[in-house]
Amino acid sequence: MKRFLEAGRLNSPRGIKGEIRFACYCDSPEFLSGIKRLYLDAAGKNFLEVALYRPSVPSFIFKGYEDRGLVSALNGRTVWFDREDFPLEDGVFYYDDIIGAPVFDAESGDRVGEVTGVEEGVSCFYYLIKANGKCWRVPAVDEFIMSADVEKGVTARLAEGLETKDEF
To answer: Residue 139: is it exposed, middle or buried by C-beta count within 10 angstroms (0-12/13-18/19+)?
Structure first.
């Protein structure tokens, strides 16, 4: 499992006091409430200390970047958070953790493929699954995903119409 997960992308400065807009990749901007550090690399070697986080906008002010000119250098940068800063309840997982998990057919119980990614849609998330030599975009809803567990894998119903021509 990756320790550092993508939080989002820093965008343009907001105002004159070093605030910078943030495109959040998490379930919601509120998820990051209370965050103390964001990292500028997936290895967690370079970090930014959070002076202020405004989930309602969403935007940040970082210590040492309290000036519009300074913070503009961060425009376009992807930032990561440390999963250890946000422990999850039992049975809850980050979508990054399910990638690579085996997929089992809901009817036969046979292993048919693996999860290759997760996409956010308008009304739900979708599991991207390679199974039976085909690519599937399966809505993460009870009708199609019977169970999802990082260690046990995913049990899914790969219904007609969910197959896609996209390669993933």
So the answer is: middle
